[in-house]
Design a protein that fits this description.
alpha+beta, four-stranded mixed β-sheet, 4 strands, 45% helix, elongated
Length: 175
């Protein structure tokens, strides 16, 4: 046998097993690298639109109900409406900020100077799920704490303009 042959060192089953494991690890690393290099370049895709069909139906009625007395903004992060109080210790900031940064309300009505008049949530069937009810209670509590009225409307195939106007009457009365 040739003393310089690499096969000489693989004369026991344990060494064969070790060589197989090393080869497997190298192959996995090579395949992962190739997958990264040759994999899809796109990680995101463009959304079809800002609003769902149900949200668009409600928006059309909301625009009529507001009749120019307020500006309507859609899909606003709660963190854009609410700030963590400056008296909160810094070590607690993220635990209070993260929950409001990751949630939004469907619509916000503002006056001409972009001061918030109210927030609006459009509740579909998903709001009957336990996890959504917990989320809704959290959002309700945050809005109540900072004094932003939160109006909730159930998703419908058709909305009655006068009902929406009536619900908005309190926040639009001075406009």
């Amino acid at each position: 046998m040739n003393l310089h042959s690499p096969w000489l060192y693989l004369d026991t089953p344990g060494r064969w097993l070790l060589a197989a494991v090393v080869l497997l690890v190298v192959l996995v690393l090579v395949f992962r690298l190739l997958a990264r290099l040759l994999g899809p370049r796109r990680r995101y895709r463009r959304a079809e639109g800002l609003f769902t069909p149900a949200e668009l139906r409600f928006l059309a009625v909301l625009e009529q109900a507001v009749a120019g007395r307020a500006r309507i903004y859609g899909k606003v992060r709660i963190a854009d409406l609410v700030l963590v109080h400056e008296a909160v210790p810094r070590r607690h900031y993220l635990s209070l900020f993260n929950p409001i940064a990751c949630k939004h309300v469907d619509y916000v009505l503002c006056d001409g100077e972009c001061r918030v008049l109210c927030a609006i949530e459009l509740d579909d069937a998903s709001h009957r799920r336990a996890d959504r009810q917990v989320r809704d209670q959290f959002v309700d509590g945050v809005m109540a704490e900072v004094g932003i009225p939160l109006l909730r409307f159930a998703v419908r195939s058709r909305y009655v303009l006068e009902e929406v106007r009536g619900a908005l009457a309190g926040v639009l009365r001075e406009r």
